[in-house]
Amino acid sequence: MKNILTVILFCVGSMVAAQTAIVGKWKTIDDESGKPRSVVEIYENGGKYYGKIVKLFREPGEDPDPICDECEDHRKGQKVIGMEIISDMKYDKGDEEWHKGEILDPENGNIYDCKLWIEDGNLKVRGYLLFFYRTQTWLPFSEG
Which of 4, 25, 75, 103 qualifies as a cystine partner to 114, CB 3.0-4.6 A? Predict the structure, then answer.
Protein backbone atom coordinates (compact mmCIF):
# COMPACT_ATOMS: atom_id res chain seq x y z
CA MET A 1 0.00 0.00 0.00
CA LYS A 2 2.82 2.37 0.89
CA ASN A 3 4.47 1.75 -2.52
CA ILE A 4 1.23 2.45 -4.38
CA LEU A 5 0.79 5.74 -2.54
CA THR A 6 4.39 6.71 -3.37
CA VAL A 7 3.83 5.95 -7.08
CA ILE A 8 0.58 7.98 -7.13
CA LEU A 9 2.22 10.97 -5.43
CA PHE A 10 5.17 10.80 -7.86
CA CYS A 11 2.85 10.73 -10.89
CA VAL A 12 0.76 13.67 -9.64
CA GLY A 13 3.93 15.63 -8.82
CA SER A 14 5.35 14.94 -12.27
CA MET A 15 2.16 16.14 -13.98
CA VAL A 16 2.14 19.38 -11.95
CA ALA A 17 5.85 19.94 -12.67
CA ALA A 18 5.29 19.46 -16.42
CA GLN A 19 2.39 21.91 -16.46
CA THR A 20 4.39 24.62 -14.70
CA ALA A 21 7.68 24.01 -16.52
CA ILE A 22 7.31 27.22 -18.56
CA VAL A 23 6.48 29.44 -15.58
CA GLY A 24 9.37 31.83 -14.97
CA LYS A 25 11.61 34.23 -16.87
CA TRP A 26 12.97 33.53 -20.35
CA LYS A 27 15.55 35.45 -22.39
CA THR A 28 14.57 35.99 -26.01
CA ILE A 29 17.25 35.99 -28.69
CA ASP A 30 17.22 38.04 -31.91
CA ASP A 31 17.02 35.71 -34.94
CA GLU A 32 19.44 37.76 -37.04
CA SER A 33 22.06 39.05 -34.60
CA GLY A 34 21.93 36.25 -32.01
CA LYS A 35 21.91 38.91 -29.26
CA PRO A 36 19.50 38.96 -26.31
CA ARG A 37 16.46 41.19 -26.99
CA SER A 38 14.20 40.86 -23.96
CA VAL A 39 13.14 38.92 -20.91
CA VAL A 40 9.61 37.52 -20.91
CA GLU A 41 8.00 36.37 -17.69
CA ILE A 42 5.51 33.54 -18.16
CA TYR A 43 2.87 33.03 -15.49
CA GLU A 44 -0.32 31.03 -14.93
CA ASN A 45 -3.68 32.67 -14.30
CA GLY A 46 -6.93 30.70 -14.12
CA GLY A 47 -5.48 27.60 -15.78
CA LYS A 48 -4.09 29.55 -18.76
CA TYR A 49 -0.58 30.83 -19.34
CA TYR A 50 0.49 34.36 -20.24
CA GLY A 51 3.76 36.13 -20.88
CA LYS A 52 4.78 39.75 -20.45
CA ILE A 53 7.97 41.60 -21.29
CA VAL A 54 9.78 42.57 -18.08
CA LYS A 55 13.13 43.72 -19.48
CA LEU A 56 14.62 44.91 -22.76
CA PHE A 57 18.25 44.68 -23.86
CA ARG A 58 18.78 47.82 -25.92
CA GLU A 59 21.60 48.91 -28.19
CA PRO A 60 23.08 52.41 -27.88
CA GLY A 61 20.75 54.86 -29.58
CA GLU A 62 17.66 52.67 -29.16
CA ASP A 63 14.79 53.96 -27.05
CA PRO A 64 15.22 52.30 -23.63
CA ASP A 65 11.47 52.37 -22.93
CA PRO A 66 9.66 52.15 -26.31
CA ILE A 67 5.95 52.06 -27.01
CA CYS A 68 4.23 49.74 -29.48
CA ASP A 69 3.53 52.03 -32.42
CA GLU A 70 2.92 49.07 -34.76
CA CYS A 71 0.28 47.38 -32.58
CA GLU A 72 -3.22 47.58 -33.99
CA ASP A 73 -5.19 46.27 -31.02
CA HIS A 74 -5.66 47.55 -27.46
CA ARG A 75 -1.86 47.62 -27.02
CA LYS A 76 -1.31 50.42 -29.54
CA GLY A 77 0.64 53.19 -27.83
CA GLN A 78 1.40 51.08 -24.75
CA LYS A 79 4.89 50.71 -23.33
CA VAL A 80 6.57 47.48 -24.43
CA ILE A 81 8.00 46.85 -20.96
CA GLY A 82 5.14 45.32 -18.99
CA MET A 83 3.20 44.43 -22.15
CA GLU A 84 1.50 41.05 -22.33
CA ILE A 85 2.70 39.40 -25.54
CA ILE A 86 1.60 35.79 -24.89
CA SER A 87 -2.02 35.09 -24.04
CA ASP A 88 -4.49 32.28 -23.36
CA MET A 89 -2.07 29.34 -23.67
CA LYS A 90 -3.52 26.00 -22.53
CA TYR A 91 -1.49 22.99 -21.46
CA ASP A 92 -2.03 19.75 -23.40
CA LYS A 93 -0.60 16.92 -21.33
CA GLY A 94 -0.93 14.46 -24.25
CA ASP A 95 1.41 16.54 -26.41
CA GLU A 96 3.27 18.08 -23.45
CA GLU A 97 2.91 21.54 -24.97
CA TRP A 98 1.00 24.75 -24.47
CA HIS A 99 -1.18 25.87 -27.38
CA LYS A 100 -4.41 27.54 -28.53
CA GLY A 101 -3.12 30.96 -27.52
CA GLU A 102 -1.52 33.91 -29.30
CA ILE A 103 1.77 35.75 -29.38
CA LEU A 104 2.39 39.36 -30.37
CA ASP A 105 5.57 40.55 -32.06
CA PRO A 106 5.81 44.11 -30.68
CA GLU A 107 8.37 45.10 -33.32
CA ASN A 108 5.85 44.78 -36.16
CA GLY A 109 2.52 44.54 -34.32
CA ASN A 110 1.63 41.16 -35.84
CA ILE A 111 -0.30 38.61 -33.78
CA TYR A 112 0.25 34.91 -34.42
CA ASP A 113 -1.20 31.65 -33.18
CA CYS A 114 1.28 30.19 -30.72
CA LYS A 115 2.63 26.90 -29.44
CA LEU A 116 5.18 26.46 -26.62
CA TRP A 117 7.15 23.46 -25.44
CA ILE A 118 10.25 22.63 -23.41
CA GLU A 119 13.20 21.05 -25.19
CA ASP A 120 16.59 20.46 -23.58
CA GLY A 121 15.73 22.88 -20.76
CA ASN A 122 14.95 25.70 -23.20
CA LEU A 123 11.57 27.09 -24.24
CA LYS A 124 10.62 26.59 -27.87
CA VAL A 125 8.24 29.31 -29.07
CA ARG A 126 6.46 28.87 -32.38
CA GLY A 127 4.35 31.61 -33.91
CA TYR A 128 2.38 30.57 -36.96
CA LEU A 129 -0.14 31.71 -39.51
CA LEU A 130 -1.74 28.88 -41.48
CA PHE A 131 1.19 26.77 -42.74
CA PHE A 132 3.86 29.42 -42.22
CA TYR A 133 5.70 29.50 -38.93
CA ARG A 134 8.84 30.60 -37.15
CA THR A 135 10.28 28.90 -34.10
CA GLN A 136 12.55 30.61 -31.61
CA THR A 137 14.51 29.20 -28.69
CA TRP A 138 14.23 31.17 -25.47
CA LEU A 139 16.73 30.54 -22.71
CA PRO A 140 16.10 30.36 -18.96
CA PHE A 141 16.88 33.72 -17.35
CA SER A 142 18.00 34.46 -13.84
CA GLU A 143 19.24 37.82 -12.67
CA GLY A 144 22.64 37.91 -11.09
Answer: 103
Residue 42: name the closest of 103, 129, 120 by CA: 103
Q: Domain with 108 in it: what CATH number?
A: 2.40.128.520
Question: How many Å apart are CA 83 and CA 23, to the nearest integer?
Answer: 17
Domain hosting residue 125, numbered range = 2-140
> How many domains are contained in the chain?
1
